[in-house]
From TrEMBL:
This is Outer membrane protein TolC. One of its GO terms (molecular function) is efflux transmembrane transporter activity. It comes from the Bacteria. InterPro entries: MdtP/NodT-like (IPR010131). It comes from Bosea psychrotolerans. PANTHER family: BLR4935 PROTEIN, OUTER MEMBRANE CATION EFFLUX PROTEIN.
Length: 493
């Protein structure tokens, strides 16, 4: 494209060049200059956090807010953490969330900047010689930016609204990840405590077998079996303690803790199973509440408005209005030797337009249209995925709840009966130590699986809730610490 300057006859009155200032004032009225919000734009995130999570969210921007948040965190950490208190600590103390709020502040600053009229450009030049001097003053401004200011301001407000929804999504995501990690950490505590108790029982049995072996009351084969299993159980305990430390550190990162705050306490067992709820219209509720769907819709509306602006300005990219005032002063020497002085003032208005000789805007329009269709297809895909995720999360929640109840109601009671009866038969010399160890080993594995099943219920419960409101689905309950392999037997417990 080329730019062409069209001179306009100068106004007769010198003050007419100040009409640019008047146009800027009109643009300010048309655009409705935005201002910074007192809460930094986090009001949407705070509302959603309170309504969906019953939790508070603050943006830490000064010493007072930082001190208040720290005081609340310290108060919550005096007692053993619950899932709810862990989530509240993360929302107050996680620096990644504060960085998301800073990103929201940047978006708000961009919105305010986009709502302001374009700045005029002022220039002054001076050209002097031996007998003459020329001073030129000019002011220029973009008429196209001025004319499109209301549309651009509206787009900027919509873009800021989408940024507010993304900040709310970050809140929900952090809450979901913290709650999942809390249950993993507590389950690791429960497994470590269980293996510690089992190891204590095994150590006592090994000491008894050692004495019986010394007195000849038991053969070396059975004695070796008990010693081998005790050693393998020690390895499983070490593995459970390693998992316990790892899960705790992952929770620490979610909570944003360091220093003396690392001495927080976690319960040793998971809470009882939550009541199973039957939820109707899961898909419709997910489509209505999911934050990521709302973000996608907002971005699609934003692209639609941007496409309209692109269509409106496809033939002209820029129009500049230039006002120039020139002062010329010169001297000339006459034949008689006298010096004659002369001065001349002139005023000019120029309209500078970019003419599309090579590109009539088709490329920009096609790019905008394809960008819009891409967003529309992604929104349609997300709507399909959200429905499926909601169904999958609900299925996982119900299935894991049924599995945990099976362990709690059937498997563990039967394992206890088997071990008690096996111990009675062993004392009556009806079975040997091999069968006793095998039955005890089965009970240990069942207890570990029951702990994992209860953990998975709480994680599935979290996944289901956030499949409805947003925040992302989890990756499941995690790896089982104890395994059935290894050829070892379990101690009595």
């Amino acid at each position: 494209m080329t730019r062409t300057a069209l001179p306009i006859p100068a106004p007769t009155h010198a003050n007419r060049i100040s009409r640019l200032a008047l146009l800027a004032g009109i643009a300010a009225l048309l655009g409705g200059c935005a201002s910074f919000s007192p809460d930094g734009g986090v009001g949407t995130a705070q509302t959603i956090a309170f309504s969906e999570l019953n939790k508070d969210v603050v943006k830490i921007g000064d010493d007072a807010s930082a001190g208040s948040a720290k005081a609340r965190v310290d108060k919550l950490m005096k007692a053993p953490l619950t899932a709810d208190s862990a989530v509240q600590i993360a929302l107050l103390n996680n620096r990644g969330l504060q960085a998301a709020f800073n990103e929201l502040g940047i978006a708000e600053a961009q919105m305010v900047a986009a709502s302001l009229p374009p700045n005029p450009r002022f220039g002054i030049s001076k050209l002097s010689g031996r007998f003459e001097i020329e001073i030129e003053r000019q002011v220029a401004g973009s008429l196209l930016a001025l004319a499109t200011l209301p549309a651009r301001a509206e787009i900027a407000r919509d873009r800021f609204g989408a940024a507010q929804l993304r900040a709310a999504e970050a809140v929900l995501k952090l809450a979901a990840e913290t709650r999942r990690q809390y249950y993993r950490a507590v389950a690791a505590n429960a497994q470590a405590a269980f293996f510690q108790e089992a190891k204590a029982s095994s150590d006592a049995a090994s000491e008894l077998f050692k004495r019986l072996g010394e007195s000849g009351g038991i053969n070396k084969l059975n004695q070796a079996r008990e010693f081998a299993f005790d050693a393998e159980l020690g390895a499983q305990l070490a593995q459970a303690r390693l998992q316990q430390r790892q899960e705790r550190e992952r929770l620490v990162r979610q909570l944003g803790l360091w220093g003396d705050d690392l001495r927080f306490k976690l319960p040793g067992t998971l809470p009882a199973l939550p009541p199973l709820k039957t939820v109707k219209a899961v898909e419709a509720e997910a489509l209505r509440k999911r934050i990521d769907v709302q973000v996608a819709r907002a971005e699609l509306d934003l692209l639609a408005k941007s496409l309209g602006l692109t269509q409106a300005t496809r033939f002209v990219n820029d129009i500049d209005l230039l006002g120039r005032r020139t002062y010329d002063r010169g001297r000339s020497v006459l034949a008689d030797g006298d010096v004659e002085r002369e001065a001349k003032r002139s005023r000019t208005l120029e309209l500078e337009i970019e003419i599309p000789l090579y590109d009539f805007g088709q490329s920009r329009v096609v790019q905008a249209e394809q960008t819009y269709m891409q967003a529309a297809n992604k929104l349609a895909e997300k709507a399909v995925n959200v429905r499926s995720e909601a169904r999958e999360a609900y299925t996982a929640y119900r299935g894991s709840h049924e599995i945990a109840r099976q362990y709690q109601s059937n498997v563990l009671p039967l394992r206890k009966i088997i071990q008690d009866e096996a111990l009675l038969q062993y004392n009556g010399m009806l079975i040997d130590v091999t069968q006793l160890i095998v039955d005890a080993r089965g009970r240990i594995l069942s207890n570990v699986a029951a702990i994992n099943a209860r953990r998975d219920v709480w994680i599935a419960h979290t996944d289901f809730k956030h499949a409805i409101i947003g925040g992302g689905l989890g990756a499941g309950g995690g790896a089982v610490v104890a395994s059935a392999g290894g050829g070892g037997d379990a101690p009595a417990h």
